[in-house]
Amino acid sequence: MLTNEQVRDILEKIKDPYLHRTLAETYGIEEISIKEEKKHVSVKVAIAQAGTKDQMEIQQQIVTALKNGGATSVGIRVNQLPPEVVASMAPADEPKSVLSPGIGTTFIAIASGKGGVGKSTVSVNLAVALARLGKKIGLVDADIYGFSVPDMMGIAERPQVQNDRIMPVERFGVKVISMGFFVEDNAPIIWRGPMLGKMLNQFFTEVEWGELDYLLLDLPPGTGDVALDVHQMIPHCKEIIVTTPHPTAAFVAARAGAMALKTDHELLGVIENMSYFESKVTGEEEYVFGKGGGKKLAEELDVALLGQIQLGQPEIDENDFAPSIYAETHKIGKVYLKIAEQVIKLTGK
Fold it and tell me: Which domains does the chain have, with CATH numbers?
């Protein structure tokens, strides 16, 4: 059976896929445990890009090497190397991904339990509101089956490629990437989970985002493949849950919140969309979808209710078409600015 010293000797020769340095050089071997009777070896290592394809690659290398060395079974836990260690060893000539450690971008996923609650509307307007407050913002339309962000923001052009890097399209101060840029004539996407995950990873690693304060992700509704991929790729991602005031919508949204908590994503809060309709005739608020769902969900998840957004329609400018973006002076646009201010305060940026 392998000894502790033999396991360490095997691990020290394995290279971190991002840094191209051995685990001995990065001091990436954190823990070794051996159960001799079962020939089981458990190890804990730290790498530069945990939660990415690099983690899968190094896990396979470790399992193969230890089994070749005599282990019957192998257990692996992977942690993140400290940002200062990664920065001191990172290849100088390798383009940095927005996922690279030490980049400083805050990731915020916008999620919902079900479709039809206005999650994408919230995503684009929150992104624009943050940009209006002077932040550098990126937005990933991660709802790959139901992409809608380019249309909602009135984006007609396609991304350009420079030096083998995809340049996101910018509108209202927000850098945007979407599956909608890569299909023709609104064609349907008929893909299985692994293909979705690969495309999502490309959005993070092959797009030239530049410096960003926040990268928002408009997730598909529910807790399916894409949501799971995001939780694995960006374990430090924060999350906002969108619901309507209807009790059933809030009940279903709680599943998305529970998923975030179980995968150690920090919940920033809840946004209640379509809270009420303000009659132009009487000026009274009419609660067409019920009342209290957002507050109840926030209490259940023990987070803040970031805002309640009324039903409304942005003013359409045919010369500057963006059918879902509220003007900064619009009543609802001002609500988004207040929500954005809370997000900045909660994230310390």
Answer: 4-89 (3.30.300.130), 106-347 (3.40.50.300)
